[in-house]
Each structure stands twice: as C-alpha cells, then as structure tokens.
Amino acid sequence: MEIKILQDILKSNKDVAxxxxxxxxxxxxxxxxxxxxxxxxxxxxxxxxxxxLKEKYRIGVIEGDIKTTKDAERLAKHDIPIIQIxxxxxxxxxxxESTWIKKCLEGFDLDKLDLIIxxxxxxxxxxxxxxxxxxxxxxxxxxxxxxxKPAKYPLMFNTCRTMVxxxxxxxxxxxxxxxxxxxxxxxxxxxxKVIQVSATKGDGMDELITHISRNIDxxxxx
Amino acid sequence: MEIKILQDILKSNKDVAxxxxxxxxxxxxxxxxxxxxxxxxxxxxxxxxxxxLKEKYRIGVIEGDIKTTKDAERLAKHDIPIIQIxxxxxxxxxxxESTWIKKCLEGFDLDKLDLIIxxxxxxxxxxxxxxxxxxxxxxxxxxxxxxxKPAKYPLMFNTCRTMVxxxxxxxxxxxxxxxxxxxxxxxxxxxxKVIQVSATKGDGMDELITHISRNIDxxxxx
Lengths: 222, 222
Hints:
Two copies of one chain form a homodimer. The first copy, chain A, has one domain: P-loop containing nucleotide triphosphate hydrolases (Rossmann fold). Chain A has eight helices and eight strands. A seven-stranded parallel sheet of chain A has the order 4-3-5-2-6-7-8, with helices on both faces. The longest helix of chain A is centred in the first third of the chain and has 22 residues. The termini of chain A are far apart.
C-alpha cells in the first residue's frame, strides 16, 4: 500500500526549490516558470521569445507535458538545449515538481546558459502550488478563455508576478470586456504586471521582450 | 501530520461512484459529467443546453469551481435547482470527487429531476482520474486551444464518450487543421462521438440537443 505523507512532500519540494535558486544564483542563470491553461499559446509564445532573444542570450528550455514531445519538437528548430519531461511515465502528474527540475538542470551545462524557460504543464490549478525555484512566475492567459479566470483560479494569479494576455488579435471577434478582466485581476493581485500580446501576429511582443531582457540583465549583470 | 492513503481514497471514490450510479438508476435520472480546460465555454454551453431542454426535462446543475459562484449565477435565470461546490473551502481541489457529488444529489429532490449536468472544474488532467457515477462523460474542447490536446491529455480524451468541439465560429480567424485534430483524437479514442458547435452563435446546437435528448430518453424511457 502506497502511503504519501503530504506535508513532507510539499516541504521537500520547497527545500529543493531553495537549492535550485542557489544553483541558479551561483551559475548566473535567470529562470522563468511559464504556466497556463491548456491551449493558451505557451509554445507559440516561447517560439517567438526564443527567436527574438537567442542572439543576445544563451537559452535552455524545459518542456513539461503529460504525454508527447510535440512542444519540444516545435522548438527544436532553434537549435538550443531542450529537455522534455513526460509525466505520463511516472503517474501522469498534473504539474512539475522541483526535484524533476533539478534533475533537468543537472542535464544542462549551466555555465553555458543565461536563461531557462520552463513551460509547465497546461493546468491553472496544480502547478501554482509547487515552487520550482524560478526567478519569475509568469501566467499566460488567452482572451478566448474569458475574463473570469483570475477570480476562479486565485492562487495562480495571486502568486505570479507577470501575466501575458495572449491572442489579442481575436478581440474583434469576441464579446470581451478588458475592464472586467482588470477588475478581477486587481482583486487578487493589484500590482501585477500585465503585457498584452498576440504571439501569432506579433502585437505587444516588443514590450514582452524588453520586460524579459531587463529582468535577465538585472540578475546576470549584463 | 496529515496522512492520506492514496489507494484507499481512489477506491472509496470509485465505490461511491457505484452508489451514485445505483441511486440515479433507481430515481431515473440521467447525469452528464462535463469537463474541459478553463475557458473552453462550458457555462455558455450549459446555458444554451438548459434553455433548449428545460421545457422537456426537469434539469438540475452541479457547478464545480475552486472559487466564486460566478457560473452558478450565470445559470440562475433558468430557475432550476443549482448546487455550487467551491473546493477552495476545503483545500482548493482541482477536481470533483464522488463523495461531494453524492452530497449534492442528497440536496436535490431526485424524484423531480430527469437530467443533472455536472460542470466539473476547469482542468484537463485531474477530473479525468475521478469517476463520479455519471451516465456520460463529455469533454468540451474549444478550437482556440489547438489541435494537439487529445494527444497531450490522453486520459481525458480516452475516457470520455463524447467530445463537443466549441467556438467553431472562430475557425475563419485561426490557422486550424481539423484533420490534425481528428487524427490526434482517433489515436486515443477512435470511436468517439464528436459534435461541432458554436455555443455563442448557435451552430451545431441542434445536433447536440438531439444527441443528449436521445440518451436521456433511452435511460428514463420517455
């Protein structure tokens, strides 16, 4: 019979997240934990971010999925180190844990990286509960998901520092209230940085790239 | 220290799901477990289904959310019994368990209902693992989420009997391949019933309504 002691598991996840933070500090690497619902556009966004930043920074990617290596394959063209975690192999977990992230980091040559983007499993609930030792928790929300998500998934929107609002090119075809979204967001996280983009069309991407670059430079002293 | 024995919890969830099935059979009630990503349009879909079916059937709704009663409020205009589960009050669970569903069923007068729609928590992962004793597991996928979801969340798409493909009114504005979706779907669940709809514009809703009515009538003998 399998017995899991929940408190210990969460404690150990947090401890390992602390070790990761220490590792990244020593190696001068900036790490983003990118989270969202399934299908909000994380991989397309990453594709565009990597395309714009790979001349300036050395980038690595950790791809989290329950099954398939589809996302990793979509990013392979950039010729950067990518590690795929398929949680289906060990139980189909719905989030990434810090112990796995640490294993991935040991698989990279951290002396040769400036930025690691972790594309977490598509899920607005569970990934929010597990720290992975990153520098920036970023939630991607697409406008097609509606305005109520910050109210309905408060832990995710409360614990992230940045929200990327994606698919704004579809706004003309939706009955969408930006005011309602912002009201819902300010109820759970009034100081949150919001950047509106269309990853497919390019709108807002310069602002996002500037935001990320500035944060990397602040940490690694470029 | 909190100790949960996982095997027992899942076993007990399954046992209670069996009790629910028995209850619903005795009371002649059809129950749908509706699942999806956050923001795929479950509540809008439910609103339209209830509007079309409430003259013919007596309907009850169980709304699952981590936080807020927003969805229940949106359906309140139909003047039907609605019970809201807010999992935030007991730990923020990311799925509905059969014990809670049973509690909800005890809150309804089942002699006065023909159909219960359970709107599960927006999450493509965890709800798939927990049976709730329904007659039909239905996954709602919106076209804006991309074609790869059946491959990436195989348990959900494999264990559902019906897929409602929503937001097809947005297809002209997306780079979307229906062939790719169907290929991904047939890899995990070749016999799945697929109904394409736009809950907001009305396309395909007649087919969905016919499908649901036929299943209800088959069970309750109308």
